[in-house]
Automatic annotation (TrEMBL):
Keywords: DNA-binding, Transcription, Transcription regulation. The lineage of its organism: Bacteria, Pseudomonadati, Bacteroidota, Chitinophagia, Chitinophagales. PANTHER family: TRANSCRIPTIONAL REGULATOR (PTHR33204:SF29), TRANSCRIPTIONAL REGULATOR, MARR FAMILY (PTHR33204). InterPro entries: HTH_HxlR (IPR002577), WH-like_DNA-bd_sf (IPR036388), WH_DNA-bd_sf (IPR036390). This is Transcriptional regulator, HxlR family. It comes from Chitinophaga jiangningensis. It comes from the Bacteria. The keyword Transcription applies.
Length: 121
């Protein structure tokens, strides 16, 4: 089994939050589920720019952390949907703030920030 050379320290609240929603896609996955996009195939369509294998990996990690749970319906073929747990729902204000910040600063982040770099902010 692989062991990290530097042990993970989760005494800091920011480190815990980043572990849960860090990376490129986890916050987007949580947002999809919040909006009712619950089936893996629907999440894949919603996030078409992301490799489905990566989405599935993140879903598994979120499930292992207790942020989402997988509901399996006894149908043929089996139907799977993801739901937010209570802890997962408690992340929604954080996701909302991240979304708001991103919307307010997307032009800057997308490279239209020469005036800021030059100190004309």
């Amino acid at each position: 089994m692989y062991q990290k050379k530097i042990p993970e320290v989760l005494d800091c609240g920011i480190a815990v939050a980043v572990k849960v929603i860090g990376g490129k896609w986890k916050a987007w996955i949580i947002d999809c589920i919040r909006r009712g996009v619950a089936r893996p195939s629907a999440i894949h369509r919603e996030m078409e720019v992301v490799n489905p294998r990566i989405i599935n990996l993140h879903l598994k990690e979120l499930e292992e952390m207790g942020i989402v749970y997988k509901e399996i319906f006894a149908e043929v073929p089996a139907r799977v949907e993801y739901r937010l747990t209570t802890v997962g729902r408690s992340l929604l204000p954080v996701i909302n703030v991240l979304e708001q910040w991103g919307n307010e600063n997307k032009e800057y982040v997308n490279g239209h920030h020469a005036e800021y770099i030059l100190g004309n902010n």
